[in-house]
Design brief:
The chain is mostly helical. It contains 20 helices and no strands. Helix 8 packs across helix 9 and helix 8 crosses helix 16.
Length: 502
């Protein structure tokens, strides 16, 4: 593949963007350092719309930012069903999940698991999240860096180290408030970058959007009835939608990086508004991100052509670097790194929350809030260094098979833990012994069926239901071990819950 010079103008634009994110961390550093309430929950002072933007930017990684247009370029818009699934679960979150997280005033999602099932489930949930997200940081740095450096002369080690370092610094300094406001800037940049690619590509095509629409219909690049044949992406839409429901339930109910944001607004109604803001953004990005891929398909059919043997995973950065003027192109490349940084910074802050709140504060009798903020910052640096070094290793080895295995193993507990949250909220007879059995069975089954040709979406649905059903049924023989669950299920959601003495 022919490499393209990155150019001084693009470097200037990229550096300006990176310095802005650094400034945000510095700006919020004083307020974040007050105590853990400020560092992890921003003392509930962030407006709903900003939290919604932050949730959106966190869930959208650079891998998605480049992978979605690639999917539309190569196939069609079928996978947009995953975005619609986000809208579908919002009422479920608002009526059945958010009330528990807000009522218990949790810092981490896994505090609910302790109140409902005991300390063992809290530790399992927290450690599974921490290990998975350390690995995820490495992958989120590595994959976009690989794609961009495959089509440019930019040094992959330099850019990976720079992204990792700056994420560590502004997350270290600004806490969750700095992360959220950085996410807002990054969310605006990544949406604006995608829109810019659409128009800059379309205006170089004779007939502009009319030609694009005609070719899209003619070549079945949208979702059409004719594409509903066994084995096609379109035929898998119901599976994509259902699987995405459970993937999103995991992310929005059992993943600390999202649940942590529910406490950063001033009220439960503001949290609900933030979810609807996120849902709206997920909806409008269907035509934006899939449209980007469709525009590029038409562009490389009519205006230019791709090099022979081109890897389409790099099609977005390749278009930016070859077709867009310097500086503007640098800003659009910054959009790709914005998507990466929003995910990385959220993971780092949430990892520190899990270690400090679920492990250190939970088991230590000597807790000092300011000292715990210092510990949280140290953990951010350690996790960031480990993730960045791992990404540099992947670049050096030019393979990610080892880390794919790591993410698979640690991620096996992700969706099943969402099943544990669900069985805790929606049933009264589930208990600690039963849900641990259900979690283990779900992880084992998910591992083996994941090695087959079954789609990941199907694996997610199966993992969730096994954790839920087996967790419930396996609880029945241990009924004498049931805890006080008043106020912890939907049946007593409005009742007062009194924490047991730890």
């Amino acid at each position: 593949m022919n490499e393209v010079g990155f150019g001084t103008g693009n470097w200037i634009a990229l550096c300006i963007y990176l310095l802005i994110t650094l400034f945000i961390g510095v700006y919020f550093s004083k307020r974040a350092g007050q105590d853990t309430e400020a560092f992890f929950k921003a003392k509930g002072r962030v407006p709903a719309w900003a939290v919604g933007f932050s949730i959106y930017a966190t869930t959208l990684s650079a891998i998605t930012y480049m992978g979605t247009p690639e999917r539309a370029f190569n196939t069609d818009w079928s996978y947009a069903a995953g975005n619609i699934a986000i809208i579908a679960i919002i009422p479920l979150l608002i009526y059945f999940y958010i009330p528990f997280f807000r009522k218990l005033d949790v810092t981490t999602a896994y505090e609910y698991l302790e109140e409902r099932f005991g300390i063992v489930m809290r530790v399992i949930g927290s450690l599974a999240f921490t290990l998975f997200h350390i690995g995820r940081v490495a992958i989120v740095i590595y994959l976009p860096t690989l794609a961009i450096t495959s089509v440019s002369d930019i040094n992959p080690y330099l850019i990976a180290a720079l992204v990792g370092l700056l994420c560590m610094i502004y997350t270290f300094m600004g806490g969750i408030e700095g992360v959220i406001w950085s996410d807002v800037i990054q969310g605006i940049i990544l949406i604006g970058g995608a829109v810019a690619v659409i128009f800059l590509g379309a205006f170089q095509i004779d007939g502009n959007f009319a030609t694009i629409a005609q070719e899209a219909m003619q070549d079945k690049k949208l979702i059409s009835v004719e594409n509903w044949k066994f084995g096609t992406a379109a035929a898998a839409i119901p599976i994509i939608f259902i699987g995405s429901i459970f993937n999103n339930l995991h992310q929005y109910t059992a993943s600390q990086d999202i649940v942590q944001r529910y406490q950063t607004t001033g009220s439960i109604s503001s949290t609900n508004k933030s979810l609807w803001t996120n849902g709206f953004l997920a909806l409008i990005t269907i035509p934006i991100f899939y449209g980007m891929g469709t525009v590029l398909y038409s562009f490389y059919n009519n205006v230019s052509s791709l090099p022979e043997g081109f890897n389409t995973s790099a099609i977005v950065p390749y278009f930016i670097l070859t077709q867009i003027p310097p500086f503007v192109g640098g800003l659009l490349i910054a959009a790709i790194f914005a998507a990466a940084q929003s995910t990385i910074s959220s993971s780092l802050n949430s990892i520190s929350a899990c270690v400090v709140v679920d492990l250190k504060q939970r088991f230590s009798k000597n807790n000092n809030s300011k000292n715990d903020v210092l510990l949280a910052r140290i953990i951010i640096i350690i996790a960031g260094i480990f993730g960045t070094l791992a990404s540099l290793y992947l670049i050096n080895q030019e393979t990610n098979e080892t880390w794919d295995l790591f993410l698979l193993v640690t991620g096996l507990f992700g969706v099943p833990i969402a099943g544990v949250f669900a069985v805790g909220i929606f049933t009264k007879r589930a208990n600690t012994y039963g849900v641990i059995i259900g979690l283990i069975v779900a992880a084992i089954v998910s591992y083996f069926i994941g090695k087959t040709e079954i789609t990941p979406f199907t694996v997610s649905a199966i993992g969730f239901f096994i954790a839920f059903i087996v967790g419930y049924l396996a609880s029945l023989p241990f009924s004498k071990h049931n805890k006080n669950i008043v106020g912890l299920t939907i049946y007593t959601i409005n009742d007062q819950y009194v924490k047991e003495t730890k």
